[in-house]
Amino acid sequence: MNMTEKLRDDSHGRCLPKTDWRQLLQGNGLVEIQSLDRKKTFQFPSWVRRTAETDGQIEQVREHLLSAGEEEQAYFHIRRNEQEIESFVIDEWMVLAEKK
Predict the structure, then answer these.
(1) b (16+ CB within 10 A) / e for 62-88
(2) Cα–Cα separations (whole angstroms), residue 36 to 21, 53, 76, 92, 96
(3) Contact assessment for residue 85 and residue 79, using Cβ atoms and an 8 Å cutoff
(4) Tens digits of per-residue pLDDT, 11-22?
(5) pTM of the shown model
């Protein structure tokens, strides 16, 4: 997903794994109270236009997702209508933390 985000948004660094987030929380004096893993669905047209600056950039993101292997397409639940992507799903981790 990092590559997809980078193609869409030039300012994207990387998506941190939960282990890194937990280290950041702990290192900044925060304690995890509750967390939730879930799947989050994005409608592709509005998602890609939020930060893409050109039609060419949008096309790069579209082609990148459509060229993914079967396993990746299944994991991200890429839903399409012929060659147009309608939506896809990502993993999301939500956390509630409080200061020690």
Answers:
(1) beebeebeeeebeebebeeeeeebebb
(2) 13, 33, 18, 8, 9
(3) yes
(4) 888 899 999 999
(5) 0.81
